[in-house]
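Narrative of activities, Objective 1.

The group set out to show that a structural description can be obtained from nothing but a protein's sequence at a throughput compatible with the screening campaign. Below is one input-output pair from the validation batch, recorded exactly as produced.
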Amino acid sequence: MPDVTPPVGQWQSKGDISRAGGILHYAAMGPDDSGKPPVVLLHRLGGWLSDWRHVAALLAEGRKVIAFDLPGHGGSRWEGSPPYIQTLGETAALLVGAFDEMGIEKVDLIGTSLGGCVGVPLAALWPERVNSFSIVSSALSPKRSLEAVRSAVDEGQVDRFDANGLPLSYPESLLTETFGIIDTHAIYVESLASRKAAGLWIQPSERGVGVTDVVGTLGRITVPTLILYGSKDKAYGKYRKNAQAALPSAIFDDIPDTGAFAIQEQPATTASMLRDFIG
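Output recorded for this entry:
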């Protein structure tokens, strides 16, 4: 069984923010006195905040950087059973509540995969809290019916989850076949661990993406937005055309020589592109 202890990284502090029914766990690095909004990082589905550790260390040169574990992932824990659907708006509101409790007025928001999807309603509905928004490899998809989501998540993933909804191991080759990742092994080992830590929260979070009109909500965003895709990504590039139509003011770009997990595959290049955008 994989070790579910997250890699350490260079985090200078960690903490828990109590929300109704549970806690949001976070880790931070970088100076508090830069005079700039903190950078907030949101991880992928079945991941944890440690996925950002290499990018965070580069962004924290002169900036405060805070990475959150999304509900049920990593060190964020809720009492009782997970809901059938953990909606994106629900998670976005939890994060805004955390910002209030931490005394954070405005952030430079960056999300990948699930984190990018969570960031869409946050940036759209609370624009006064977001200085800029960056999305790295996310499913910017239209709303699907509950029946379609059940078919895709409940019935279509019997090889990845057991009957109780706990994640199963999967072949390493899937990272290349589905996500276009080139150097897979280290990412594969860590992914098994982070998925085990997220456990029963993975499928509810995925259902939350499915029942949300992510691309439609994207069109309501008014803050400066950057949308990045790995040049070898096989999973999320199909959403690019509709995203460009929904938010033509956004900057779209490709991260060279990387698949869908760019923050782990090419952290230096990804951090450089993000840093150039947020300033």
